[in-house]
Amino acid sequence: MRNLLFRRKNIADLLKKEGTIQLKQSLGAFDLILLGVGAIVGTGIFILPGTVSATHAGPGIVFSFIIAAIVCALAGMCYSEFASSVPVTGSAYTYGYIVFGEIVAWLVGWALLLEYGLAVAAVATGWSSYLSALLAGFNISLPTAISGSFNPAVGTYINLPAIVIIFATAFFLMLGIKESTRLNSIMVFLKVGVILLFIGVGVFYVEPTNWQPFLPFGVSGVLSGAALVFFAYLGFDAVSSAAEEVKNPQRNMPIGIIGSLLICTVLYVVVSLVLTGMVPYTDLNVSDPVSYVMQLVHQDWIAGIISLGAVVGMMTVILVMSYGGTRLLYALGRDGLLPKSMAELSPKFKTPVKNTWVFAILVAFCAGFVPLSKLTELVNMGTLVAFTIVSIGVIYLRKNKNIPSGGFKVPFFPVLPILSFLMCLFLISQLSIHTWIACGLWFVFGLIVYFVYGRKHSTMN
């Protein structure tokens, strides 16, 4: 039984081209950077800098973002070594299969399904709210019954805008990754343009006295702030899902992962500085701090543009996280742990059309009917579980003599992977007991699926 549960994939077999239809290699380093920025810069930059500075870190939130970025960069380097050594779709799931065995890989894949699925559903729900606010600026209002999750007490029954955006995203993903990245690129440029507009205008309203005191909650406030803003970086791991569709992955994967993290960190830090410099940090505990401060300085037209930027920004997060989820289902189906139909590629589009729509329907149901406010922390748990496995897995990967030479290597080995592992464990410990219980139930359900179906149908048999 132990040999069955911990059977590992052979790297040489993974790198062979199997079957007649393959995922098309069409992405370069710049495409990957835009994918990363598209996934990372979303609700985080428009909400977290205000709420976390008001309640935890004050102007010192810039240090919170830098600390969180360091944790993500350490995990990102571990991802980069895996992605350049084993350029196969499946992200942390595939990496776990190589170094730890099938049962660990399945649990990591199950955790990632939770991350991608709930992230898409939660962001789509938020996108619906921002869309309603944007339309209200044009005196257009959506019927209450179709603009929120099922809650008859307040008159909402279905969140139709959230369902529509998820299905629209699935349609673009069905057409192909190159077409999807083209759409993502346009939206990322719009989103970053809006952020730069805020910085360019807001800097003239900065009053240095608002930065005093810089650390009102002390160092502990900065650290607790880092545990919260860490979640603003979620999504860069979805870039590693593109490994099989990348030209020259040994070079381009590390550039895409580390490059997107670097760009997003700079944007987060500068926005936080401008935001806390424009008004006292105590006034920023609102749901739309970036728009709010622009209204305070009577720049209402910019506040409207920022609302538009938030709507566009969330669309890119939905796109990239949906992409990560469909490619994970593809890997699980190809390995037999889920039905083989999950790994079927369309001869016309060269994409997994069936699993794209299965993923979209399941996630759209959650976004349309289920209130997700209590479940969003599960997204973070799923991500951190994957980060810990990848961080410690690099040490085992280096011992494997079948790894092709060349590609990116984590510097200061093994210190940085161990440091990344410990930091991720620390952040997991910061999550609430309710999250631990809900995540435990999810994993129990996953183990049932594995023992009833996956173990019998695994291609490793």
From TrEMBL:
Location within or outside the cell: Membrane
Superkingdom classification of source: Bacteria
Keyword Transport: yes
Gene Ontology cellular-component annotations: membrane
Membrane spanning stretches: 27-48, 60-82, 94-113, 120-142, 154-176, 188-205, 217-236, 257-281, 301-324, 356-372, 378-398, 410-428, 434-453
Record's keyword terms, sorted: Membrane, Transmembrane, Transmembrane helix, Transport
Membrane topology, from the record: Multi-pass membrane protein
Alphabetized GO MF terms: amino acid transmembrane transporter activity
PANTHER family linked: CATIONIC AMINO ACID TRANSPORTER 4, INNER MEMBRANE TRANSPORTER YGJI-RELATED
Protein's name in the database: Amino acid permease
Gene source species: Lysinibacillus mangiferihumi
